[in-house]
Design a protein that fits this description.
The chain is mainly beta. Helix content is 6%, strand content 42%. Strands 2-3-4-5 form a four-stranded antiparallel β-sheet, with no helix packed on it. The chain is globular and about 50 Å long.
């Protein structure tokens, strides 16, 4: 190749490069985060009845949900409980027998255990072990007073401790007693007696040593308080002082912080310093075990929020129903139910359970 020809080639290449640079690049179209419908049969066929009560394991592999869909093996007028393996598509029925209705599923971090409430006439708390396929009723041996019903409140991340309440139908006594079951020993410890008031939620730390719980005070100016019980020392600490009516979101797995719903926002109370800090506006619905990510319903919609950086995920559908155990570790995915058509083949016209990856 001659020097003249080489120079012309270089010049042409330069002009082409400059011309390409002058043309603005087309921006990549915005795509919504991927959504997977979970309330389907193992072959992916859609349910012929509504599903809800979504709860996802922290590792993101298992989703527990309730349904009345006959195609999922459910009685049409009684909610059944199903556990979906998102990796294999397998659907496991948690079944106590004919006539039972199910609710409030709460999986352990790896989905190996699921706490739930179920009953024929009155519900009671249960713990399902996926390895054995056995569901165990959680009930103290000799509870004080008259108690005929109960329900689960939370399960520790490793599935070894379950908080549950029991009570009766007399006025506001449905959740009069709060217990924690230690699955290693099979013992039930009374955390809060009836004298402290009707309970309003509970949450167990990772090692089961600390239990956060809410109490309905009956006061018009401050109808709800939140306490933490240290099972080792017996010490009971109020953690919502100065916040007015406060409701429990959860205690972190390390037992050091408590997330609270108060004054129209999300607060984090540090048990070491005794200080409470507002971290988000809106109503908190769910939070990860480390307390960093939360689903918050605010003025800009219901979104997953990184409480450390302030970053927000895409808004969920306006009709999304979000429970207390709907976030995976790292805030990477959120489970919810919605009657909106969020996937192309959603034509059943009823509420389904979905998992959305967080963008």
């Amino acid at each position: 190749m001659s020097r003249r020809t080489s120079g012309m080639s270089l010049g042409a290449a330069l002009l082409l490069a400059l011309g390409a640079a002058a043309v603005p690049a087309t921006a990549a179209p915005h795509r919504p985060p991927p959504v997977e419908r979970v309330s389907t049969a193992a072959d992916g066929s859609q349910a012929d009845g509504p599903s809800g009560g979504a709860a996802i394991s922290a590792d993101g592999r298992h989703v527990a949900f309730t349904s009345t869909a006959p195609s999922l093996g459910c009685a049409q007028y009684f909610t059944c409980l199903r556990l979906k393996d998102l990796t294999t598509g397998k659907v496991t029925a948690v079944d106590l027998g004919s006539g039972y209705a199910y609710g409030s599923p709460m999986p352990s971090a790896d989905g190996s255990r699921v706490a739930f409430s179920a009953g024929v006439r009155f519900q009671a708390p249960y713990l399902y072990d996926r390895a054995t396929g056995v569901s165990t009723k959680l009930w103290p041996e000799n509870p004080p007073g008259f108690d005929e019903l109960g329900g689960v409140e939370s399960i520790s991340p490793d599935g070894t401790h379950v908080a549950y309440t029991i009570g009766n139908r007399n006025g506001p006594q449905a959740t009069r007693l709060l217990y924690v079951r230690d699955t290693a020993t099979g013992t039930d410890e009374l955390i809060s007696p009836a004298e402290e008031g009707d309970k309003a939620g509970a949450s167990v730390s990772g090692d089961g040593e600390r239990v956060a719980y809410g109490v309905r005070t009956g006061s018009g100016t401050d109808p709800a308080d939140v306490f933490v019980k240290d099972r080792r020392t017996g010490e009971r600490t109020q953690v919502d002082t100065g916040l007015g009516a406060a409701y429990l979101v959860r205690i972190t797995a390390d037992g050091r912080r408590v997330l609270l719903d108060a004054e129209g926002g999300l607060y984090v109370h540090d048990l070491r310093t005794g200080e409470s800090r507002r971290v988000a506006d809106g109503r908190p619905l769910s939070a990860t075990a480390d307390g960093r990510y939360a689903v918050v319903a605010g003025a800009d919609g219901t979104r997953v929020r990184d409480l450390r950086t302030g970053r927000k995920g895409a808004a969920l559908p306006t009709d999304a129903q979000v429970g207390p155990d709907t976030l995976t570790a790292g805030g990477r995915a959120v489970a919810f139910s919605s009657a909106s058509s969020l996937v192309p083949d959603d034509t059943n016209g009823v509420a389904d359970v979905f998992v959305r990856q967080v963008s």
